[in-house]
Structures are given as structure tokens and as C-alpha cells.
Design brief:
The protein has one domain. The chain is about 90% helix and about 0% strand. The chain is built from three helices and no strands. Helix 1 runs antiparallel to helix 2 (about 45-80).
Length: about 90
């Protein structure tokens, strides 16, 4: 197998992971910033106030974006399995 093929596989894997993890991470980031701004404005420094909304936002994003995330990972795995004969022929 050539270095270009290996780099291509790794690039596709990294892109699939980024696409699959982006919705929960982005929503957690947005909620975290909003809660931090609210805490700064109201001078409330309660730790659970910052933690619980982020957890709920990530759980809700998994419910709403779970199908998209699974589809991205499934497409990558199917593409990887379909190219197995190509990878084997490059080894010889």
C-alpha cells in the first residue's frame, strides 16, 4: 500500500470524526458561552449552573443529530470496506 493511500484513509477518517463530533461540540460550546456570560452578568458563580445546561444540550444534540452522525460514520466504513480489494492489490 502506498503512502498516498494511507494518508487518504487517515484524512477521510479524521474528516468523518470531525463531522460526527461537530454538532454536540458546537452546541456545548454555544451553551457554555451563554451560561458564562449569564454568570458574569449576574455574578452567580455556581458550578452546577455551568455544567448541567451543557450536559443537557449535548444529550439533546445527540437525539437530534444522531442520525446524521451515524450516517457519516456508516458511509466512511462502507467506503473503507468497498476499497479493501484495492488496498490488497496495492500490497502485492
Amino acid at each position: 500500500m502506498t503512502q498516498e493511500a494511507i494518508v487518504g484513509i487517515v484524512q477521510d477518517a479524521v474528516m468523518a470524526v470531525i463531522l460526527a463530533s461537530a454538532p454536540p461540540l458546537a452546541l456545548g460550546l454555544i451553551i457554555g458561552i451563554a451560561v458564562s456570560v449569564f454568570q458574569a452578568v449576574t455574578s452567580i458563580q455556581e458550578q452546577t449552573m455551568a455544567f448541567i445546561p451543557k450536559i443537557l444540550a449535548v444529550m439533546l444534540s445527540l437525539v437530534f443529530f444522531g442520525y446524521f452522525m451515524l450516517t457519516v460514520l456508516q458511509e466512511y466504513i462502507i467506503e473503507l470496506y468497498m476499497n479493501i480489494p484495492f488496498f490488497i492489490s496495492e500490497i502485492r
